[in-house]
Amino acid sequence: xxxxxxxxxxxxxxxxxxxxxxxxxxxxxxxxxxxxxxxxxxxxxxxxxxxxxxxxxxxxxxxxxxxxxxxxxxxxxxxxxxxxxxxxxxxxxxxxxxxxxxxxxxxxxxxxxxxxxxxxxxxxxxxxxxxxxxxxxxxxxxxxxxxxxxxxxxxxxxxxxxxxxxxxxxxxxxxxxxxxxxxxxxxxxxxxxxxxxxxxxxxxxxxxxxxxxxxxxxxxxxxxxxxxxxxxxxxxxxxxxxxxxxxxxxxxxxxxx
Length: 257
Fold this sequence. Notes:
Layout (H helix, E strand, L loop, with lengths): L5 H14 L4 H12 L4 H13 L3 H7 L2 H6 L1 H13 L3 H8 L2 H6 L2 H14 L4 H17 L3 H13 L3 H11 L6 H15 L2 H14 L4 H14 L3 H14 L4 H9 L2
Helix pairs in contact: 1-3, 2-3, 3-4, 3-6, 4-6, 7-9, 9-10, 10-11, 10-12, 11-12, 11-13, 12-13, 13-14, 14-15, 15-16, 15-17, 16-17
C-alpha cells in the first residue's frame, strides 16, 4: 500500500510468523534484506522489532556506527544490541563519542557509564558513584522513567542506598509517583528498614487510600513498630475479613496479639 509505513510492515511480518508455514528465521532474514540500505528513519520500526525479538545480531548487521550516530532511535536500539551481545568495548567507545553526545541525553549516557563500570568489574565504589551520577542526571532532566530504571538496576545489584534515593525522587514526579512509592516500599521491606517502610507506606496510603496493598503494608509496619496497635489490629482484622486467604495479612494480624 502506498501509505504503508515501516510499522505496518512489522505488523504484517508478525502476522506471517503467526500464520505462515514459512520459518520465522526466513521471514526475519527477508526483512533484513528488504531494509538493507534503506533510509535510516525507515529502518527504525524494523530495527525496534528486531530488538524486541532479541535478534541482536541482525540489528548490528542492519545498523552500523555511522547510522547510529546519525539517528537517535537507531542509536538507542543499537546500544541495546551491543549491551546484550556483550560488546562492551564498542559500547564504551560509542557512549563517549562526541557525535553521540549531541543526540543522546545526559541521563542515558550516565546510565550506560554505570552499566559499563559494573560489567567491566570496576570497584564497587566506582559503580556506586556512576549510579549516583545517573540518578542526579535523571533528576536534573526530570526523567522519571530513568529514575525508576536506575533504581531497579541499583536494587538488583545491591546498591540499596542509591536505589532508595532514586525511588524516593521518582515518587515526587507526578506521572511516576506510584511506581516510586511501590519501589520504595518494596526496598524498605527487603532491607528491613521499618522506619522507612512506615513513612513510605503511610504516605502511600494517604495518596491512595483505597489501595489495599499499601494499607496492608502500612498496618504491618505499624504493628512491627508498636504504633497505634489497637487501631492497626482492628484495621488488619477488617482487611483479613475481605482477604481471608492472604498469608501476609494473617501474619500482620498475628503480630497484633
